[in-house]
Design goal:
single chain, alpha/beta, Rossmann fold, five-stranded parallel beta sheet, 14 strands
Amino acid sequence: MPCPFLRLHSLADAAPLLAVLQGRNEPEPAVPGKPGTEEQVATILHRVEKEGLEAVVDFTRRFDAPAFTEAQFKVPAAALKAAFARMDPQDLAMLQQAVHNIRIYHERQRENSWFITGEDGSIMGRRVLPVDRAGLYVPGGKAGSTPLISSLLMGAIPAQAAGVQEIAVVSPPGPDGTIHEAILAVAHLLGITEVYAAGSAWGVAALAFGAGPLAPVDVIAGPGNIYVATAKRLLLGRVGIDMIAGPSEILVIADHTANPAWAAADMLSQAEHDPIASALCLCTDEALAHAIHAEVARQAALLPRKDIAAHSLQKYSAVAVVPNIATAVNIANAVAPEHLELLVQDPWAVMPGIRHAGAVFMGHHAAEALGDYMAGPNHVLPTMGTARFASPLGVETFCKKMSIVAPSAAFSRSNAAHVARFARMEGLEAHARSALCRGEG
């Protein structure tokens, strides 16, 4: 059996499933003789902060590239250009179209500064500014086997749309100490010149603290494994982050009009990511549910990453029959999935009821993979139920706001007594006097 087959009559019936999903991606706890994930990452961060590039090289030798040297840490601009020159013309055309779509979408997200002027001439406002430096983590997979160039696009383009002037990229090297050529080529395509070979928690630490030629950044964005996520969480406050990303997940709501082969393919598009990824399908039609269940088994057996998908399907996935769309929506909102597909006859009628999801894919032709690569919206999305309060990575990730207070003399005088009274209620006499001295003019 590829994944459980369930009947969920209400949201209450889904409680055990929700508990299983919430238990994923918890940092490994400490046990006697072995520190937990958080302790391991804290040690890595401390070493990189104190030792800089020396620590980064040491960790890289131990875990990625045994003969790694300091000279390999920063990738020369000539290597980026050479990788770009070797790109297949068809790949380049495809990437240029993706860049175009993603850039148009994210440029629409830019916020404007604004000011309001009172009758007495006072001006109050908010100024929107990009951060000075952004750091992007780009996963490379084991030994660079799955270079997530799409994540580079999804991090760099919003930062550029925000107006960030300096962007640094880190990505884990393969055993020979080099980063996958596709990542180098795409960096050049995007006009990025700072690329560094460093992965896992030490790569994130290098962005935060600086290491050798890599200067510290203000914001770190990009997905990664549990060590990357834990490092970002521990560094929050020292730097800004986009989010603490967990394992991939998809929830499909399907009615009688859905194509079972398509629904199964979409479930597997996430199951193949990670053994703890989740792929759920809620069907209002029992015959369709059985058809999707069978298709999942058939298609999973054909995948190159079938072992990874099998674990995800068996432990954290399910095909479930529900009585109606309303029940499916209630369960979906409780899950708050990273990706939510509406494979239904009228997705726009269903969409207003959706409160919590990282991204919603509308209709039978909206494959999740389309959003990963070409549609335009960002694919770095909140996971593990955090879509209840979090948003996709976007231009705002790389911006900060500054309040502007420019009162007129009349406004200052007319409010001096009020400020003083307020300050004295809080026991802050110096605050009171600061306002009153201007009220005397």
